[in-house]
Each structure stands twice: as C-alpha cells, then as structure tokens.
Specification:
Strand content of chain B: under 5%
Number of domains of chain A: 1
CATH class of chain A: Alpha Beta
Number of strands of chain A: 8
Radius of gyration of chain A: 20 Å
Number of helices of chain A: 12
Shape of chain B: globular
CATH architecture of chain A: Alpha-Beta Barrel
Strand order of the largest sheet of chain A: 1-2-3-4-5-6-7-8
Strand content of chain A: 5-15%
Structural class of chain B: mainly alpha
CATH topology of chain A: TIM Barrel
Order of helices and strands of chain A: HHEHEHEHEHEHEHEHHHEH
Order of helices and strands of chain B: HHHHHHHH
Oligomer: heterodimer
C-alpha cells in the first residue's frame, strides 16, 4: 500500500515497522535489554470495565517506571478485560506493553489469529503462559482448553515470526515481529529441574523470562547458578519477579490460595512483627530487588503489585535500579487523533 | 491405576529397555503389517494397546505416545494435559495444582527420566497433540513412521509441524507423523 492510499483510511493507519538489525521485534523492552540496561516491567491490574479511560487509569501508576507493562490474561482464571484489548490501547498511546497469552482459554486457531491481530495493533512483546487451572477462578465450570502448553506455544509463535508461517504450513505475508517471553517459577518443586525447563523454554523460542515471585533469595541464587552452568547466560534475558506484601494475612492467603507461590515463614514473620506491615512489605520488596540485581545473569525485575500499584514507583525509585533512566512514553508511535 | 503408574516411573529404566525391544519388534513387523493392511489391523492392535497401557500407565490413547521421553509417566494424566511440563503451580512435595492428592505427572516424569539411559529426551520440545488421532494405535504409527523414513508429507500441515518440532520428531516420530494414516486411525466428523 502506498503512503497516499494509507491516508484514505482515517483516522489512523500505522506503518508496520520492521525491527532494527540485531533485534527480533524492536520493542522498547528488547532495545533496553540489548543495550545492557537493567529493565523494569510491571503488572497492570486489568479493569472490569469497557471504558478505555479505566485502562489508562490502571496504567497511570506504572507510567515512567516500567519499560513495559504486562496485561494479564485472566490471571488466576478470573475474568477481566482481555490482554489484547489493553495492549492495543496502551501501545497506540505509545506505552510499552507485554501481551500475555494463557493456554487455558483458547485453542491453536484462536491464539495464532490473535498473535497476528496483536502485532497489527503494534504490540511487540508477548508472554507465553500455561495458565492456572479453571478451578481456582471465578467460573470454575468453564471448559479448560490447554490445546497448547507454554512451550508448544513459544515454538509456534517463533515459527510464525521466523519462518513466516502458521503451524498449518500456510504462509504469512507479514510475520508478527514479537519479542518472545516465557515464565518460570524458580522457587517451587521440582527445584532441581526448574533450570532445565528454563533451558527447554529457550530452546522452544523464549527471548526473555519473567519469573514468578521471588521471596527466597538463596533458592533463587542456586537456580541462577545452575542456569549459568547450563550456558544460558547471554542467550536469554531473565527478569526476576518481585512484589510488595500488604500484610502477613495477605501473604498467608496468597501462599494457600494462589497456585505456585512460595513465601518462607521467616518473611511472613518479619511482616507480622512490623509496626507498619504495609511499609515493611515495601521495604522488603526494595531489599529483594537490591539483592537480586547483584546476582549474575539477572537482566531486570518484574514487579507484580496487585492492588498495590501505587507503591511501584516508590519501590523502583528507592531501589535505584533505573539509575537516571526514565522509561518515557514513545510519542512518535502514538497518534494525536487517536480516539 | 495410580499405583501401577508410580511403579512404572520407579522402574523407568526397565520399562525403557522393554519399550526399546518392543519397538524393534514392531518396526521389523512393518512388511507384515503392510501386507495385511494397516487399516485392517488398526482396531485390534489399538484395543490391545488400550488395555495393556491403560493398566500400566493410565494411558489415555492420545495416539502419539511419548512415554519414552517422559520418564514413563503419561503426560495425558496431567489435568492440563501438558506435553512439556511441569507448570508453575506444583504444590510442596511435588503434588498437582489441580488434583492435590495426586503427585504431579511431570515431577514424576523428570524423576523417571533421571533413571533412564536416554532420559535426556525429556528436553525435546513436544508439539501439541493432534486431536484427530486420539484413540488410534501409537505402536502402529511408530512402525509406519520408522519404516517409511519420510522427511516430508503429502500433507503440508504435517510437514510444517514435523519441521517446527524436529527434535521431538527425531526421537518420537508418532508425535509429528508424516506417513499417510489408514482411515480407521483417524477420527472424523464433528466429534473433534
């Protein structure tokens, strides 16, 4: 399509940009990581609303702090606004986003189509997840799909991006330029095999990893030592998951009700004994970030502050990990007449 | 049976040996199977497979068996049916997120693989299951695939999956089959 023809589609038809040399997507997150900066990503609390203003409201506490915001995909099997909708809105306004895909709710036909749709909307980062079982969510009677698992999903999107074809073998004329992410959970069983599974995810196509919450630094250090032994340093960017604990009660509830969360008793005790538990939870999070950033092979942090998003900018500022960097909104990619 | 399943994983090395012998025999029988016709023997063989593997491994007859790559722990018993597990929800002690009374199928798989000679196969990235092959004989599929030694299929869809998941196909050809399927091995119609 020529530039003139593009103008015939008001109000807004962006050009589909190819990534710069040495990049797979050209996303802000990819550029920051490849430049060797310590990256910050943060989880956005998705609204239960159809109003786009509520998306920007949810994003506000993370603006100027996160290199990319993760829009969760019905996390914990609870229904909220879709990740693709949130990412499309924020990306068009110039913010870095990470589109999360859970294998729980959609089959291979839906997912491959959505990846093209997201890429067309300008989304350049995707996080491939297995997803929690439907039983823990707000609609436990739903049919679990799990047509893909996170690894076959990674390999499929990599095939779409690098080979330019669907898993059916059919050609894609403009492949989706996605920076491919996966999750890992270093502190839960089987501890011995978690690093091997991370290696498998890199083999499947992962460019970056966001881990689940790390509250147990010694366990995470052992994990990272094994990751380095497996030769993964330099082959994948690892962002360690952190988050502030609101209270001892909240921590216990999370440990018992949210799948895959390990919080040592000592951590909960520290929060319990504190005069101001919420402040102590924030302090702990800052300390964790400072300890984690010293571990060789860690490329950044991923802050998950569910319902404590207001604390994220203070946590990042006080931890000092951004140094003088400010993840600005990209005004060039946003559009004035976007409605 | 859950206990038989745990037994199989504990003795993964012996089962690996047994399975390798079985595969040699089945592949050697390919000319005979082809003479009788794969289509005619599909249902009887699948019935035998269903009973024996059902007893030993709680086999769900996905038709694309990867037991030798998963420490003899059948991944179809995972409530999420992960082909590349475990997920991030494993409970303390290695129990399942969805069924807390059951040990995680994939924790068992990694334990079993550690006992096996070729346990490293668990590192292969497995493709998604072809739901159209459920209920068919995986043994016959292995026989066909190993005998035919194809690198491409007449069906572009199959070739694409085999190439995208080349590591899995190299060790477990039934996971990304290329040879034409006999009609009785493929589920048809709206039931898919």
């Amino acid at each position: 399509m020529t530039a003139g023809e593009r103008l015939e589609f008001p109000p807004w038809l962006p050009t589909y940009e190819e990534p710069p040399p040495g990049h797979v997507s050209g996303s802000r997150l990819e550029r920051v990581l490849r430049q060797g900066h310590f990256a910050v990503t943060a989880e956005l609390n998705p609204p239960d609303s159809a109003d786009p203003a509520d998306v920007f409201e949810a994003a506000r506490p993370l603006v100027g702090v996160a290199d990319a915001m993760n829009a969760t995909d019905a996390s914990g099997a609870n229904c909220h606004m879709s990740s693709i909708g949130i990412c499309a809105l924020l990306t068009r306004a110039g913010y870095g986003t990470i589109y999360q895909i859970s294998c729980r709710d959609r089959n291979r036909i839906a997912i491959q189509g959505d990846v093209l749709g997201a890429a067309a909307m300008g989304v350049r980062n995707v996080l491939c997840l297995t997803g929690d079982g439907v039983g823990v969510g707000d609609q436990p009677g739903a049919r679990p799909v799990f047509d893909f698992d996170s690894l076959s999903l990674l390999r499929t999107i990599r095939t779409m991006r690098d080979e330019g074809m669907f898993l059916s073998g059919r050609r894609i004329t403009r492949p989706p330029r996605m920076f491919l992410g996966a999750a890992e959970n270093p502190c839960i069983p089987p501890l011995d095999w978690r690093p091997e599974r991370l290696a498998k995810k890199v083999e499947a196509g992962a460019d970056f990893i966001q881990t689940n919450y790390i509250f147990d630094v010694p366990v995470f250090e052992r994990f990272m030592a094994r990751v380095r032994d497996l030769g993964l340093e330099g082959r994948v960017f690892i962002l360690a998951g952190v988050g502030p604990i609101a209270s001892a009660k909240a921590a216990r509830w999370m440990r018992n009700n949210v799948p895959g969360i390990h919080i040592p008793d000592a951590v909960i005790e520290r929060i319990e004994k504190a005069a101001n538990p919420a402040e102590e939870g924030k302090r702990l999070c800052i300390e964790l970030i400072q300890q984690i950033r010293e571990i060789r092979g860690v490329a950044g942090v991923h802050v998950m502050a569910y319902r404590r998003e207001h604390q994220v900018s203070e946590i990042i500022a006080e931890s000092g990990v951004l140094q003088a960097r400010v993840p600005e909104r990209n005004r060039a990619s946003s559009t004035a007449d976007f409605r | 049976m859950y206990r038989a399943r745990l037994f199989a994983v504990r003795h993964a090395r012996a089962f690996e040996w047994l399975y390798a012998r079985l595969e040699t025999v089945i592949v050697a029988l390919d000319p005979l199977f082809a003479r009788i016709g794969y289509d005619r023997i599909e249902r009887p063989v699948a019935a035998v497979e269903r009973v024996t593997k059902g007893l030993l491994f709680d086999c769900r007859m996905c038709g694309q068996c990867i037991l030798s790559s998963t420490g003899m722990s059948c991944p179809m018993n995972c409530p999420k049916q992960l082909r590349n597990g475990p997920c991030g929800g494993v409970r303390p002690g290695g129990y399942c997120e969805v069924k807390p009374e059951m040990r995680c199928v994939w924790v068992l798989a990694w334990e079993g693989a550690a006992r096996m000679k070729d346990g490293g196969r668990i590192n292969d990235v497995q493709p998604p299951v072809d739901r159209g092959l459920e209920g068919s004989s995986s043994w016959l599929r292995v026989s066909r695939e190993k005998a035919a030694r194809l690198r491409e299929s007449s069906d572009a869809r199959r070739t694409a999956i085999a190439h995208a998941f080349a590591d899995a196909r190299a060790h477990e050809p039934a996971t990304a089959p290329l040879a034409p399927e006999p009609p009785s091995a493929v589920r048809s119609g709206g039931g898919r």
